[in-house]
Design brief:
This protein is an alpha+beta fold and 343 residues long. It contains eight helices and 18 strands. 28% of the residues are buried.
């Protein structure tokens, strides 16, 4: 969904030295206050952002709900200053940037939110910004694109190597498109909350009350961080399955090691805390690494982690169910092969 009801103006500028707060680097506006650096500061008439960089001129951005000049009309410093005056209600003297360029002077109209109907068409797969475009507010795009890549990479590798089970490559879209849909929903909601108007101010007050409750704050924090993602739990359907694998400290025969250190191989990992699963895991030894270890805390007795660091299967039983494990290994990593394999 593309909208055209807002105009963003950004430029390198100069201001008098006494207009920069010496303690914070914020922009001092007489009769209004200090615009902090590297934040989106909302007013009832729009939004302003201010940033200073060593060796570069300061950068100023305003956002308004307005039509503005035609897109092919170049932005001018006067237009930006007029926009700033409307947003903060006070005129602020702005000068041209000092120093060598190139200097930024840009106007953008509207917001661009789009989500591909399909992530795969035969041998063509979409990833990152090719699959989803949304506002950068809150900064979720980097995490979203990286997790797309991590999700697709191991499934594509399994397909190339010929041991991917049926439907594995198609599960890239099944798992990742709903995540992108949720991120675009979140960014659209945030854009509403930073918009101008007294009605939006009232909505922000209500959201502030809701976020004062810890459970709500945790919910929104997980949404913004992308840590609330959960995929289909697979054939075993354990409580942890489909969730991000939290980092653990594992105690092995060669000392302590973090789970994060073991995942650099980009191979599936079976963490066996009971020492009873080596025989079943050996049938997938060509593509699954087994680590015998102990953990200091927790009820989990075994954990199968996908290459993208999501849990495929977990057990809390004193003797984990080998048949459940075998079904999950086949579901995600294909048919077993013969051969030894435990390390």
């Amino acid at each position: 969904m593309t909208t055209d009801d807002s105009v963003s103006r950004t430029a390198h500028v100069s201001v008098a030295a006494d207009r920069i707060d010496p303690a914070t680097g914020g922009l001092i506006i007489d009769g209004w206050g200090i615009v902090p650096q590297f934040q989106h500061t909302r007013t009832e008439h729009g939004m302003i952002a201010w940033a200073t960089f060593e060796g570069r001129p300061p950068m100023l951005t305003t956002v308004e709900r307005a039509t503005g000049p035609a897109e092919d009309t170049p932005l001018t410093l006067g237009e930006l200053a007029a926009s700033l005056a409307r947003v903060v209600g006070v005129e602020v003297p702005l000068g041209p940037p000092i120093g060598e360029g190139p200097h930024l002077m840009r106007r953008l109209r509207g917001g661009n939110t789009r989500l591909a109907d399909r992530y795969r068409a035969g041998r063509v797969l979409l990833i990152g910004d090719a699959a989803h475009v949304h506002s950068a507010i809150g900064g979720p795009g980097l995490n979203l694109g990286l997790q797309d890549a991590a999700n697709l990479a191991w499934k594509l590798a399994a397909t190339v190597h010929g041991h991917a089970p049926d439907g594995l490559l198609d599960s890239y879209e099944t798992e990742r498109r709903p995540v992108a849909q949720r991120v675009t929903m979140s960014t659209q909601a945030q854009l509403v909350l930073v918009g101008p108007g007294s009605d939006v101010t009232a909505l922000r007050v209500l959201f502030g009350e809701l976020l004062a409750k810890p459970a709500n704050a945790r919910h929104i924090a997980a949404l913004l961080a992308g840590s609330d993602v959960r995929y289909d739990p697979g054939p075993a359907g354990s409580e942890l399955a489909g969730r991000w694998a939290e980092d653990l400290v594992l105690h092995t025969g060669s000392g302590a090691v973090r789970l994060a250190e073991l995942t650099v191989s980009a191979r599936p990992l079976l963490l066996d805390f009971t020492g009873t699963l080596g025989e079943v895991a050996a049938r997938w030894a060509d593509r699954v690494d087994v680590v015998n270890a102990k953990v200091a805390d927790g009820e989990t007795t075994a954990l199968l982690v996908r290459p993208d660091c999501y849990v495929a299967w977990a057990s809390t039983a004193e003797r984990p169910d080998a048949r459940e494990l075998a079904a999950t290994l086949k579901h995600y990593f294909g048919a077993p092969s013969d051969g030894p394999g435990q390390r």
